[in-house]
What does this fold into?
Amino acid sequence: MLDPNIGARPVFDGGALISALDTRRATLGLDWNQLAHELWDQSGDLNAELAGNSLCSGALVRTAKRQTMSCQYAVMILRWIDRPPEDFLFEPVVAVGDTRLPTAGPDRRLRWNLPQLHSAVNERRGQERLTWAALADQLSCTPGRVTNLRAARLADMDLAMRITQWLRLPAASFIHPERW
It folds into this structure.
């Protein structure tokens, strides 16, 4: 558990993730539109089956400029560069063991299971005898941001990673190949 008296918390470096993405994009000679197609095609069979819209290159560029993103968006990028989210944490980082992301074929999409993350947080919170407010203080967020994970489909990547670090579990424990 992170010591509540220590102000430093692990922070997800979205800028470093975007830099790694951009390096691979440039190495392959892709423009942002081609990159958007590459990211979308990772789950090409599933996307065709769902008749979904393709990934917007403009949204990808805006994400690159903001350097913050949802955990669902980040995992698509992480899958493409074949790196775990823990590679993009600032100190202090908790060693959590094997951080490799699960593999997913073109008929699957890697997705965070946020209700599962909420359940793990709630169980650990109970073991530690923490109120939601006390836990939120340790995670440097509001209580609602943590309790909302129970029904959320999206959460920001920085919060998701602070939580997995607090749980001392790899993010991959909550990321699964999905068909929907």
The longest helix spans residues 114-128.
